[in-house]
Design goal:
Layout (H helix, E strand, L loop, with lengths): L3 H13 L3 E5 L4 H16 L3 E5 L12 H9 L4 E5 L6 H10 L2 E5 L15 E3 L15 H14 L7 H22 L6 H14 L5 H9 L11 H18 L3 H8 L3 H35 L1 H5 L3 E6 L6 H12 L3 E7 L2 E7 L6 H9 L24 E4 L3 E7 L3 H15 L13 E2 L7 H8 L13 E8 L4 E3 L3 E7 L11 E6 L3 H7 L6 E11 L6 E11 L3
Parallel strand pairs: 1-2, 1-3, 3-4, 4-5, 6-7, 11-12, 15-17
Antiparallel strand pairs: 7-8, 8-10, 9-10, 12-14, 12-16, 13-14, 14-15, 16-17
Helix pairs in contact: 2-5, 2-6, 2-10, 3-4, 5-6, 6-7, 6-9, 8-11, 9-11, 10-11, 11-13, 14-15
Length: 548
């Protein structure tokens, strides 16, 4: 990886000189687990390392000059960023002015127009000239690579038996959680990291991991841990800290050896996750109301919706919900004290970061083609700061500029998506009648884990199924169905299955489903381990009335 030799040499120098180092992370799963990985590795090698994870609301995303200045005052001479820093040009200049060495480890795309930040070394497979073959590593995986390179050079810890049988597998636990949670494609090296890490996570030894599993009602001893468990049960609880409170407590959770303190921190994450759900539901109710009432908004090729003091911690989730509802690129903005903070999610074929770069530059925007001024103020961009990648991005800017941002993004989306109608696409992998849903098949499906982005979970379809009873509504949003398939042969018994549909209650009511209705079912196979009513069941991915 380009920059690795320089990065390792500088860290080894800091360890030898007993210089205190600062790890500067991000507040999501990727950033906090990256801090844990590097902190553990440097301390194993005898180094002194502190860390800083910014508070989402008070500090916002990315490297902050004020934190660098404070670190320098305390005697720090080396700062290592994890999962951030690739666009921190001004902050890198602050570090250079202070005499503070900077190592940047990040996976976000570099700026298309600005030079890279000044640093002793930059570790990012996406930077120009880097020959590293896997370009889609998450931030924690890049931190893992630096940790691996450091530990491999230590004659005691790089002994093959200990290094490959104990140390690396332990580090892969954190790397796997981040790889799955950050939704990087689970192909190539990412798949290897995730698969090996999941295997290790089934034997959690650290107090923090054990406490987190208990809080999430997961028992690796009785249930084989999957990518689904990490993505939808572990990751949301870790993310809740950065969304709702202080993400630094995640680092403490994963590094403490005190079982009582670990249990306390894990329970706090559980509480924060519940608060996150409440904040999300409240804003989503308002978003759904606007979508229902505003026809012009529904017709826009890109959605930008703002609200006063919506919790910044849930903006990305809300943008994802909008994409699910509309199949359009979506941005959700919270306006607080005259400043607008936004988070967006996109769809295939619409690179969101490129759209923000277009909107940010008046000079490159055809609508401002006559603006040839050399005055930087005349060519200033819209954003205070922004960054991200093709499918997810965030920004901040003065709230008064929101109308201009909306016009530019809608114009850009109109051109980019002109020949394309937004549509929800359900990709079905195979026809699979109910009689073929067997424990043997479920066992084979487990072998293609880990599943996720880039290696999606198989979706099957069974046609002409009959509802055996009325749909049972759960918590006013979800449904349970009992279904029977058509007999595979004359006189044969019909295969049966129970199906669960998350957020399907309203749609089932619109379809008029009742006992005896015939439907075509798109589904994923689930294994319910409940001792009383467990077994194989279907999770509804799509449902429609049968043609006949």
């Amino acid at each position: 990886m380009l920059g690795m030799n320089e990065a390792v040499a500088r860290v080894e120098e800091a360890i030898a000189r007993r210089e205190p180092m600062l790890l500067y992370g991000d507040y999501d799963v990727d950033g906090t687990t990256a801090v844990v990985l590097l902190k553990t590795a440097i301390e194993m090698l005898g180094g002194t390392v502190n860390f800083h994870v910014p508070h989402r609301l008070r500090e916002g995303y990315g490297l902050q000059s004020s934190v660098l200045e404070a670190a320098y005052t305390r005697g720090t001479r080396l700062v290592i960023t994890v999962d951030t820093g690739m666009r921190a040009v001004a902050e890198a200049e602050t570090a250079r002015r202070l005499g503070l060495d900077l190592i940047i480890t990040d996976h976000h795309l570099p700026s298309a127009t600005d030079s890279p930040p000044y640093a002793v070394a930059i570790l990012n497979p996406n930077q120009p000239g880097c020959p590293y073959p896997e370009k889609s590593l998450c931030g924690a995986a890049i931190a893992f690579k630096l940790a691996q390179a450091l530990l491999e050079r230590d004659p005691v810890r790089s002994a093959p038996a200990r290094f490959h049988e104990k140390i690396l597998p332990s580090f892969l636990k954190m790397a796997a959680i981040a790889t799955i949670a950050d939704a990087v494609p689970l192909r190539g090296e990412n798949r290897t990291i995730a698969a090996l890490g999941l295997k290790e996570l089934r034997r959690p030894a650290a107090a923090g991991l054990r406490a987190l599993f208990r809080a999430a009602a997961l028992d690796p001893a009785t249930k084989e841990l999957t990518g689904f468990d990490v993505a939808f049960r572990i990751a949301p609880r870790i993310n809740a800290a950065g969304r709702m409170d202080v993400a630094s407590e995640v680092v403490e959770l994963f590094t403490t050896r005190d079982a009582a303190r670990a249990a306390e921190l894990a329970q706090k994450l559980e509480t924060l996750n519940l608060l996150r759900r409440e904040a999300e539901a409240e804003a989503l109710t308002e978003i759904d109301r606007r979508l229902a009432e505003d026809a012009e908004l529904r017709q826009a090729p890109l959605l930008l919706m703002e609200g006063d003091n919506w919790h910044r911690g849930v903006l990305g989730i809300l943008a994802s919900r909008l994409v699910e509802r509309t199949a359009k690129p979506s941005i959700v903005v919270s306006v607080e004290d005259g400043e607008a903070h936004g988070s967006g999610r996109s769809v295939d074929g619409f690179p969101l970061l490129e759209a923000l770069e277009f909107a940010n530059s008046e000079f490159e925007n055809p609508a401002f083609a006559n603006n040839k001024s050399d005055n930087p103020a005349a060519r200033a961009g819209l954003f205070t700061r922004f960054g991200g990648h093709a499918f997810a991005a965030g920004f901040s800017l003065p709230a008064e500029r929101l109308p201009k941002l909306r016009r530019r993004l809608v114009a850009y989306a109109t051109e980019k998506l002109a020949s394309r109608e937004p549509e929800h696409i359900l990709r079905i992998h195979a026809e699979l009648p109910l009689e073929r849903v067997t424990p043997v098949l479920a066992g084979w499906l487990r072998r293609i884990e880990p599943l996720g982005h880039g290696n999606p979970e198989p979706v099957f379809v069974a046609r002409g199924l009959r509802l055996l009873s009325e749909p049972r509504v759960m918590k006013e949003r979800h449904i349970r169905l009992e279904l029977a398939g058509p007999p595979s042969a004359p006189g044969a018994a019909s295969a049966r299955i129970k199906a669960v549909g998350w957020d399907w209650a309203a749609r089932a009511a619109e379809m008029g489903l009742t006992s005896g209705s015939h439907v075509d079912l798109a589904y994923k196979i689930r294994e319910n381990l409940h001792p009383d009513f467990g077994g194989l069941e279907a999770e509804i991915a799509g449902l429609q009335l049968a043609a006949s």
